[in-house]
Amino acid sequence: MTAQDSATVRTTIAVESRPASTAAPAAAATAVPTASPDTRQGALLAGLGVVAFSLTFPATAWGLESFGPWSLVAVRSLLAGLLAGAFLLVGRVPLPERRHWAGLAVVAAGTVVGFPLLTTLALRTSTTSHAAVVVGLLPLTTAALSALRTGRRPSRAFWAAALTGAGVVLAFTVQQSGGALSTGDLYLFAALLVCAAGYTEGGRLAREMPGWQVIGWALILTLPLAVLGSAAALAAEPVHLGAHGVLGMLWVAAGSQFFGLYVWYRGMAAIGVPRASQLQLAQPLLTLVWAVLLLGEHLSPAAPLAAAGVLVCIAVTQRAAA
């Protein structure tokens, strides 16, 4: 047998070709948009921040068992500032650029001082569950301030879902309070504004520097005030240390003030302030769960309905272009 006899016979297979103009649209029609890894990670980090924040009010209620309101806020800022300073020193992080300090001051005033102080004062007369649903308006407030600050305009579907979610939260709040607003509610509404400003500015800065450095330097800015405030408040307000009080203080300092804001700002940098803010629609509902489990508070029958409505709004806002 010769080489030629053993050669493989070549055959030609006819393949029907399609014009590129018709194949491309078909492929595009079947393509399903998927979230990028950065977007998924950003949503996860922002979600962790929401879980951390949802424990803030119950932990604050525990902290008030041992500390006065001014002592609680001052000492939590002091502890969180020392923790942030240690991380910044270990990481040998250089000082922020000069153009960033004004924004960091807004973050410090809103999220480190204003929101903790105003909500702590509110919790002297308001229940944890009531405060939680009032602060449920924070996502809409943050989205609105972000649009004004950055000039971005979320889609109509986004705004429709956000307004609906805020309406559900507001209706639940009014139903729970009997239609009358208390002094505690005024503290809470003021807390919404200052916190939304801090979140908006922090989200902008987190696009230019790591999120943990944003909250870290904001805490460092307030450290001198926290030292003086702690000394004055502890001298003026009685302290009765107990297990709940100590655990509450440690959580609001390390869990809410540092870790929560760290992952929150990283998440906002990845998915944007408007979308991240809408994840907070779940925060009051999570806080209601903690209020029952940790504080023994009783929920009204309207809570499950509010939960269902808010979760639907979260799903819509996450799919809408923002």
What's the rounded overall pLDDT mean? Answer: 81
Biggest sheet features: none
Low-confidence stretches: 1-33
Oligomer: single chain
Pattern of helices and strands: HHHHHHHHHHHHHH
What structural class should be given to the helix and strand makeup? mainly alpha
Tally of helical runs = 14
Q: In total, how many beta strands? A: 0
Beta fraction? under 5%
Distance between the termini: 73 Å
| Rg, nearest Å | 25 Å
The residue fraction in helices comes out at over 70%
Shape: globular
Task: Sum up the structure in keywords.
322 residues; mainly alpha; 14 helices; 74% helix; disordered N terminus
Word description of this protein:
By secondary structure, the protein is mainly alpha-helical. The protein starts with 19 loop residues before the first helix and ends with a helix. It contains 14 helices and no strands. The radius of gyration is 25 Å and the shape is globular.
Summarize the structure.
The protein is mainly α. Helices cover 74% and strands 0% of the residues.
Topology:
Elements (H helix, E strand, L loop, with lengths): L19 H11 L6 H18 L1 H8 L5 H22 L10 H22 L5 H7 L3 H13 L5 H22 L5 H23 L5 H26 L6 H29 L1 H7 L3 H13 L6 H18 L3
Helix pairs in contact: 2-11, 2-13, 3-11, 3-13, 4-5, 4-10, 4-11, 5-9, 5-10, 6-13, 7-9, 7-12, 8-14, 9-11, 10-11, 11-12
